[in-house]
């Protein structure tokens, strides 16, 4: 998506440790018009899929998932919560996800009330790096017996391999910008096309 690539070039900064900072418009301050264009692009890509629910993971996926839902007939958005283990009980699907930015594992939960075998799910997230968050969401869908219809990602860091692995596993991954390489010293960013 040209608009997203341009914003990344203009306002993104490349940090050490494979971190791309885009918090001016994507995951701290939120550009809602951009979110809307992203939702439209995912709706075009996944047109015809019988999506009943959007599933994302807190925190950064929530805003864009909610705006995207407007383009999918206002389906409900469920976000997986990074829980304290003290909160866990049998009414939840539980998995574990290693958080890229917090550098630790979290138990991640979704209530059984909000996901089940009747659901056809679109997974949405702001970043796809090593694929830990997405594999956690897929795991939760498997527990629920729900069908994963596709994966919509704002920014995939292609060089970290998570997206290619998911495609090899057969998932339809629509990343609106795929960073092929980025250099913290020069700030240069190359996109995959
Ligand atoms: O493909 P991965 O290696 O899993 O990386 C992608 C995940 O990393 C970030 O979550 P994180 O927990 O770091 O931060 P957040 O709470 O801001 O969403 C991002 O929002 C994705 O969910
Ligand atoms: O703001 C972010 N920048 C990143 O490079 C990244 N990778 C995973 N999650 C991320 N969030």
UniProtKB/TrEMBL annotation:
GO biological process: one example: XMP salvage
Domain of life: Bacteria
Pathway given in the UniProt record: Purine metabolism; XMP biosynthesis via salvage pathway; XMP from xanthine: step 1/1
InterPro entries: PRTase-like, PRTase_dom, Pur/Pyrimidine_PRTase, Xanthine_PRibTrfase
Sorted UniProt keywords: Cytoplasm, Glycosyltransferase, Purine salvage, Transferase
One GO CC term, this protein: cytoplasm
MF (Gene Ontology): xanthine phosphoribosyltransferase activity
Binding locations of 5-phospho-alpha-D-ribose 1-diphosphate: 129-133
Amino acids binding xanthine: 20, 27, 157
Stretch forming the signal peptide: none
Catalytic reactions on record: XMP + diphosphate = xanthine + 5-phospho-alpha-D-ribose 1-diphosphate
Major localization class: cytoplasm
Cellular localisation: Cytoplasm
Residue span, Phosphoribosyltransferase domain: 46-155
Subunit organization: Homodimer.
NCBIfam families listed in its UniProt record: PRK09219.1, XPRTase
Function recorded in the entry: Converts the preformed base xanthine, a product of nucleic acid breakdown, to xanthosine 5'-monophosphate (XMP), so it can be reused for RNA or DNA synthesis.
Family the UniProt entry places it in: Belongs to the purine/pyrimidine phosphoribosyltransferase family. Xpt subfamily.
Protein name: Xanthine phosphoribosyltransferase
């Amino acid at each position: 998506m040209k608009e997203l690539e341009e914003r990344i070039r203009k306002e993104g900064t490349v940090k050490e440790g494979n971190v791309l900072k885009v918090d001016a418009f994507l995951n701290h301050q939120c550009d809602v018009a951009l979110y809307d264009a992203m939702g439209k692009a995912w709706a075009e890509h996944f047109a015809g899929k019988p999506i009943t629910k959007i599933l994302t993971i807190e925190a950064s996926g929530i805003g864009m998932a909610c705006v995207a839902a407007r383009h999918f007939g206002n389906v409900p958005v469920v976000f997986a919560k990074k829980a304290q283990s003290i909160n866990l009980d049998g009414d939840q699907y539980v998995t574990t996800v290693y958080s890229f930015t917090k550098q630790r594992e979290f138990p991640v939960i979704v209530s059984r009330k909000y996901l089940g075998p009747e659901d056809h799910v679109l997974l949405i997230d702001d970043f796809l790096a090593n694929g830990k968050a997405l594999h956690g969401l897929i795991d939760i869908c498997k527990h629920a017996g729900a069908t994963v219809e596709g994966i919509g990602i704002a920014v995939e860091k292609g060089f970290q391999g998570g997206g290619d692995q998911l495609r090899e596993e057969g998932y339809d991954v629509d990343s609106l910008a795929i960073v092929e390489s980025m250099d913290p010293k020069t700030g240069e960013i190359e996109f995959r096309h």
